[in-house]
Write the structure tokens for this entry.
Amino acid sequence: MRVVFAGTPPFAVAALEALLAAGHDVPLVLTQPDRPAGRGLRLTASAVSECAARHGLALYKPPSLKLPESQGPIREAMPDVMVVAAYGLILPAAVLAMPGKGCINIHASLLPRWRGAAPIQRAILAGDPETGVCIMQMETGLDTGPVLLERSIPIAPRDTAAGLTRSLAALGAEALVDALGRLESLAPKPQDATRATYAAKIDKSEARIDWTRSARDVDRQIRAFNPVPGAETTWKGQSLKIWEALPATGSGPPGTLLGSGPEGLVIACGEGALAALEIQRQGSKRLGAGDFLRGYPLEAGGLFGI
């Protein structure tokens, strides 16, 4: 099948690789323009851009697809179908109508739950027991199209957004190849809009840890914001990020450091306690609790978050 592919982050690379491995013809790859990244803010190509370059695929990086002149390369590629995976740009109606078999999207949730930009993080924050991927037909609405195929997986108690993203990327790539192979016979299933929830883009302010919340909620926050933007707190006014934690025994005023050692920094929450296992000072690297304490000892009884 002749497939135009649109995607940007590593999540989408698995799908592009799977398309090529399955023998589909990919005449054009769309991805977002290079963006400044790193401390030097050097222009950096997307993960999909690098993948396309490795395979010698034609690459197109429009800042928008709203103007007719920006849509020309897609039309000229004459796709049977267009596949979208975490592309990050809106496809206008004119683009959605170009492929003969339509446009399909790999969405990282079990629609209609978690339509929108951050379904993986929102599922972890909400304590969902499972998530998955949907292969859906695209419409002008935000993730409103009918579902062609879905695959589900449980969310394990220690899953982070990073690990779950990798799992769902592989699951989505497998589901995509399956769906394309059966595209003519799959029956589109309309979504029940009354059950829809919205996965808003993560705001950095959400990463600030509120120690008055339960240990369960703070743990979800730490896992959902690993790797971006990182759950954040303060100690004596200095910013710290906590990348990994485990439930712990203890109680006290929320935010109190109950004890510390190589096994973790035990911090009281509104209900229960957590042992922070991996911590990062601003401008420094991530460290396990033991290494962190060797360079930055903390006194029991002190308060995080002030």
Observations:
- The first strand starts at residue 2 and ends at 7.
